[in-house]
Amino acid sequence: MLKRLKVQIQITIESISLFNQIEINYSLLIRINDDYLKTTTVSDRLADRIAAFGGSWKFIILFGIFLFAWIVWNTLQLTRHFDAPPFILLNLLLFFLAAFQAPLILMSQNRQASRDKHEAIIDFAINFFMYFTLKASRHQTSTLLHQYYFR
């Protein structure tokens, strides 16, 4: 009975150690996110927000409504036309939107790619460490159980 209790206590200690490692790894990921927020400038975060909005369904729907309203306003006979068909002012607006939005989206994607690469390296290191920790824990558990049952 005492031997069985000793084996269970040692297995429990190994489990606690493993969970502590998982907590440390989680806190490491939180720290990486904090470091990313500290190293990015205000203009970088603004570019990220604009790119996130520009690539969303909300933007597509709102911009579709805007384009539809612009075209209807300038084709109805009941209203004063400030941009008659072929909508030269609208084409100029679309050109400026594309010219300014594209570099912001590319900047945001480049930053996200470098962040993803950094996180992938850290994830690999964590997984590599956890693999050997689990392997050692399994070996110790197997050894303890073998000692308990075959002696």
What's the short story on this structure?
The protein is mostly helical and 151 residues long.
Structure description:
- There is one protein chain.
- 87% of the residues lie in helices and 0% in strands.
- It is mainly alpha-helical and 151 residues long.
- It has one domain.
- The longest helix is centred in the C-terminal third of the chain and has 62 residues.
- The N terminus is likely disordered.
Total domain modules: 1
Share in helix? over 70%
- In whole angstroms, how far apart are the ends? 13 Å
Structure classification:
mainly alpha
Helix-strand sequence: HHHH
Shape: elongated
Q: Biggest β-sheet: count, sense, barrel?
A: none
Number of H/I helices: 4
> Which segments are poorly predicted (pLDDT under 50) over 5 or more consecutive residues?
1-9
Estimate what percentage of residues fall within beta strands.
Answer: under 5%
Radius of gyration: 30 Å
Please describe the structure with a list of short key phrases separated by commas or semicolons.
single chain, mainly alpha, 151 residues, elongated, 4 helices
Helix-strand blueprint:
Blueprint (H helix, E strand, L loop, with lengths): L1 H38 L2 H13 L2 H19 L12 H62 L2
Helix pairs in contact: 1-4, 2-4
